[in-house]
Amino acid sequence: MPLRALRSAAREFADVLRAATPTHRRLRDELVAIIVATVGVDLLCAIAAFVLERHSQQTDIRTFGSAAFWTTTQTLLAPTEPIIAHTHTQEDSWPTRTSIRQRVA
Question: What are residue 26's phi and psi, to 5 degrees?
């Protein structure tokens, strides 16, 4: 059973790559557009991070490669970081990730 499912998935993947039907072609074109847009946004963010951070004293971003690595990891991993909720008093401001980390540590 699992082998049959893997063969079927491989066959569908090949059909999408070679655009076997108009539906496969549309899916392939949409996937390519999403990938190109994602890489483009990542490169723009890497350029911005490099230009804005390279001369800062409190940063590890000194090269374009380190900027690209940082922006890619932030894009891929930052949404998975848990936000820890806590109660607020009127004196408290809304929590930031930094303030939450300081309270936890």
Answer: -65, -45
Predicted model pTM? 0.62
Q: Can you give the residue ranges of every domain in the chain?
A: 2-80
Secondary structure of 11-51 in the HEC alphabet?
Answer: HHHHHHHHCCCHHHHHHHHHHHHHHHHHHHHHHHHHHHHHH
Residues 6+ apart with CB under 8 A from 67: 46, 47, 49, 50, 53, 54, 61
CA count, 13 A, side-chain hemisphere, 10: 6
Contact 42, 71 (CB under 8 A): yes
> Distances from the Cα of 92 to the Cαs of 31, 49, 95, 103, 104, in angstroms?
45, 31, 8, 13, 16
Task: Judge whether 84 and 104 are in contact, CB under 8 Å.
Answer: yes
Tens of pLDDT, residues 23-40: 999 999 999 999 999 999
**Contact by Cβ (8 Å): 83, 100:** yes
